[in-house]
Amino acid sequence: MTSLEWALQLLLLGLLAVAIPFAIRLERQLALLRKERGALEAGAAGIQDAARVAEAAIIRLRAAAEGAGKGVAEKIAAAEPLREDLRFLTERAEALADRLDAAVRAARPAAGEPAGVAPKSAAERDLLRALALGRSAAREQG
To answer: What is the pTM of this model?
Structure first.
């Protein structure tokens, strides 16, 4: 053999010496993977089952949300006429209350004493005058 062949063979031996530890490490890791293959498959199956359960839950949740939305829409549709009726009754009640208030004010005597009731004593007259003054003061402030 020539010196060039010897040099190439030594280079090849050096490269093999470097590659052998890597090959041994790779073989050990592959053996570990083979050992743990069952656990990996079980884990993958567990993830797949969990994904199926989650998809089923999403479908049920979506159906429940749609049902609730329809129920709310129906209740709103049923409540709308009632709201309009309440608005109408409230407006009528306010108008009647205004008319009643005007009638009560018109029926009150100017002195603030109750109509048709004459005070029996001076103390009652003084009390009624004080009440009338209190009312007039409250009206002026309010």
So the answer is: 0.41
Cα separation, 117 vs 125, in Å, equals 11
Token pair for 38: 């069952």
Element (H, E) at 21: helix 3-35
Q: List, in sequence order, the alpha helices (H) in 108-141.
A: 122-141
Q: Tell the residue number behind the tokens 């004080």, with chain if given.
A: 130
Which pLDDT band, with edges at 50, 70 and 90, does 112 fall under? Answer: low
Residue 120: CA count within 13 A, CB half-sphere:
0
C-beta separation of 128 from 119 below 8 A:
yes
Q: Do residues 90 and 84 touch, judged by C-beta distance below 8 A?
A: no
pLDDT band at 84 (very low <50, low <70, confident <90, very high): very high
Helix 37-107 vs helix 3-35: crossing angle, to nearest 10: 50
Task: Return d(Cα 116, Cα 120) in angstroms, integer.
Answer: 12
Which pLDDT band holds residue 113 (cuts at 50, 70, 90)?
low
CB atoms within 10 A of CB 113: 17
Q: How far apart are CA 46 and CA 48, in angstroms?
A: 5
